[in-house]
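Action item from last week, closing it out:
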Amino acid sequence: MTQLSDSNQAWLLASRPDGEPAKENFRLVEQPIPSIKKGEMLLRTAYLSLDPYMRGRMDDTKSYAPPAQLDQPMVGGTVSQVVESQHPDFKNGDWVLAGSGWQRYAVSDGTGVAKIGDLPHPSWALGILGMPGFTAYMGLMDIGQPKAGETLVVAAATGPVGATAGQLGKLKGCHVVGVAGGEEKCRYAIEKLGFSACIDHHREDFAEQLANACPDGIDIYFENVGGKVFDAVFPLLNTAARVPVCGLVSTYNSGKTLPAGPDRTPQILSGILKRRIRLQGFIIFQDYGDRYPEFLQAMTPLVEQQKIHYREHMIDGLENAPQAFFDMLKGKNFGKTVVKVSE
């Protein structure tokens, strides 16, 4: 059996934030490594995925998934290795995709666990070949339905979802315009990802710059952000435009009260009606879970042939997970945020 550490380090959800999360919402503990019984296996976390959806799971509100539980390890997807098994379908040494959360070790009965085989980059199962890549693929292909010559605008363009959606749009012949925070990210979107343009949303003339980059209007807007980016996009949406909505990260820390300001709902609904805009939210595994093999079959060769580029923002050490999470919510990451928990 693989040598184990002396204890199981874990970040527990200590309290629920009202607005922006903080370090005091988490508590780091050292616990005994759990034992297993027949039908179970012990998983050691190698990589932990940090994703925007986790902010919503910290709230005790009705949603598409149950809230994270207080005084339990914070939820999260992991790439883990089986270090001890009494499960008939898994053996010691297997690499798996699991939901072990923010901890070094976890016991599993196999529910929701999938073998990932011999990947050259195991952590990529949390990104380009995992949930973010799957989200980009299905959101763009099924809801966005890109066609050659159309204009696609992608928010959070250098994140794992946005970067993938934009590159897929380029392969489909779209004029792709990214939106990102900062000149460095915009240069990357153009020079590495092949976008036609990328607009820095920090610019005072952001809305004007976006309009100039989309002279024929916008046919598809891949929504990851909301807020002022959506405000600039909406007037530019063409008749029969499609808007896959997979995230609204600009609002995740807004708290429980409605934002101040005028009610623009009638104006937005009127635009949706008059221009026959298709605006559709989706939850990737609830809506498309049975199509994951289809995604892997399509995406794997694109990644292997480097037709799709991918960037990770790797953080070393589980102790740094909360700060990395806060930074990601503020857009300070560059690429898919992954925490390296163990070798």
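Closing note: The two ends are 15 Å apart (CA to CA).
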